[in-house]
Known about the structure:
Layout: H1 14-30, E1 37-38, H2 46-50, H3 63-66, H4 69-78, E2 83-84, H5 91-104, E3 109-112, E4 126-130, E5 135-137, H6 139-146, H7 153-160, H8 175-185, H9 188-193, H10 201-209, H11 211-221, H12 243-253, H13 256-266
Parallel strand pairs: 1-2, 3-4
Antiparallel strand pairs: 4-5
Helix pairs in contact: 1-4, 4-12, 7-8, 7-11, 12-13
Amino acid sequence: MLFRSTNAAGEPTHAVYGTVTMLERMLRQRRPRRLAVAMDAPCPSFRKTIYDAYKANRATPPADLVVQFPRVRAVIDALAIPVLQQDGLEADDLIATAVQRARERRLRVIVVSGDKDLMQLVGDDVLVWDTMRDRVVGPAEVVERFGVEVAQLGDLLALMGDTSDNVPGVPTVGPKTARDLLREHGTLDRLYAALDRIPRAKLRETLALHREQAYLSRQLVTLRTDARIDPDLDRLRPGPPDRARLRALYAELGFSRLLAALDEAEEPGPPAPAPS
């Protein structure tokens, strides 16, 4: 079945449809006991405050995407899924805080995202599920992809930088060099403590010259775990969906399959057999 990217009124709907089907799949396959959606706040994060060029290279989101944001939020609210959002922090920080709270309670967590920054949270009790690629990332997958342990991933990103977020890193230090340095020295702090013992003069000079930039980058990629999230994670449970509101939204958006599935779910089942 083909999916139209606009509704009958010409309103773009592809992002809303993608969000709804992802949530539907996650609820069906994982059946989470607790669930929340983290969103960036509309105001700049603290990272922009400490480094004005943070994410400055990103193009303005397409207009046909921006106009769908309120619709996405409306569907999430109608599904009664809790939303995490806080001024000054990014969605990643809210996720990291929720993961920290869950770890304190020894709960297992699945982070649904394709963002590599969130792979810093991975452990035996935390997995990242990239639904777009249908790939689950654990500690072994982090090592396979980056060549370092999960605990070293932040230092790796600090050294090599991140063009997608305009994190500067150390010039000329690419993924291989950063990986090799961390394999030998373990952490960014230990690397700089042993700077005089690095045999390659040019690399030693570059690292020394851009030390402040490396630590700024480390600050930019570090996920905060101090967001204002209720420590009672039992509050992060979806409530009963507002089916009337969902029906209206799906009808307006032209989501005929989802509308049919919603109506089917509300149909009464066969009568219970009479007691013998």
